[in-house]
Amino acid sequence: MTTIMKMNCILTFGEATANGDIQGVLNIDILVSEKDHCWRELLDAQLFSEIAANCASTGWDVRQLVKISTCADWDTFERCTGEIGLIDHDGKWYFGRGRYDLDEWENVLMRQYGFGEDVNVSCVQEEEELKVFMARMLKYFRSVA
Q1: How far apart are the first and last CA of the chain?
Q2: What is the mean pLDDT of each successive set of 10 residues along the chain, which is 145 residues long?
Q3: CA 47 – CA 34 distance, rounded (Å)
Q4: Which of 7, 24, 98, 130 has the smallest C-beta neighbourhood within 10 Å, fewest atoms?
Q5: Cα-flanking dihedrals φ and ψ of residue 90, to 5°?
Q6: d(CA 13, CA 23)
């Protein structure tokens, strides 16, 4: 038996889309069957190709895509498969050249679909590193005061 798991996706782009927005929203139906036992394989098979296809049909440039945020009823996956969904993941994927905090999955998606390939986000990485440094320094100065 196949069940539909509704998924809402917010796509964030490095540059404005043709209509002037930097975000787009997609509602995607993910088909789940009792044979699905790995939520990552399910998303690899259905979600990201659907996002790429939707971007192509709406004129959104996947090479400008810097973030995918999702919300889904993972209870549907769990009821249908008996497996726990989204273990050790928050349902967000980041992309862009110059980011050093991307995980292997995000790097694979960049290579496979071109997500974020034309966006240089090294300034984001530098800003994050600066925040961490400042937090450490503040903690240090509070400890010696």
Answers
A1: 64
A2: 94 87 94 92 95 93 95 91 83 91 94 95 63 71 78
A3: 18
A4: 130
A5: -100, 5
A6: 6
